[in-house]
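Page 47, continued from p. 46.
Same chain as before, 263 aa.
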Amino acid sequence: MSNMDRRTYLKSVGGTGVALTLAGCTSLTGDGGNADTITPGTASGFPPFEFVNDSGDLVGFDIDLLTEVVDRTDYELGEWEDLEFGQLITSLDNGNIDVIAAAMTINDERDQTIDFSDPYYDANQAVLVREDADFRPGSRDDLGDRPVGAQTGTTGEDEVDALVEDGIIAGGQKSTYGNYVLAVQDLVNGNVDAVIVDTPVAETFVSNRAVVTAFTIETGEQYGFGVPEGGEELQTALNDGLAEVQDDGTFQDLTEEWFASGE
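Result:
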């Protein structure tokens, strides 16, 4: 994985949150002042980047990071829309949200439909298995003829599809879920033998669920904020805000809060 300034990898979940409000949004509408309000979209169930805590609040690294980034621009952040991950790009294209903050990997397929900010986080794919099981695969081939799960629309699902395409597992052994909380629960319950998930999120599940990382698939992913295609003004503003957050130490503070607090 590449070195990115002020980026560290996580150990466990921590931090504080913002209230989740699921209200209708108006794309880039002026609020009567000098700033335009942008409506952010995310997909909870991906801790510690975005999830709903026990108090019912939407919290996470992405939530806090985008808040800090937008605070350094001429925009104002509106109410969050919490959607299924697979709905985010469609909602962005339709103008229902203005920016995606959901640990979304920058790739060529998505880049044909939307644009991205500069990358802000690195990740690979981890293969999770049950802690109390004898099954300990060390490579993709070791997953042969085993049921494997992932969240719909993610790089993890791409990796499961590759297992099917390579003949390592059958198509019927692939399971997909609306979020990774459900996927890991199915793993713990014994309905699948492995789940493929982004490495930082895997570490969070390892810290609080009866699962372990068996091995890592090197994918060299980078996360970015998604913006509408052609939205150069917003894209530039987010990039400038992100650079400021990284330079003034706020990014490092957030990584320590969410990925190394021990909470």
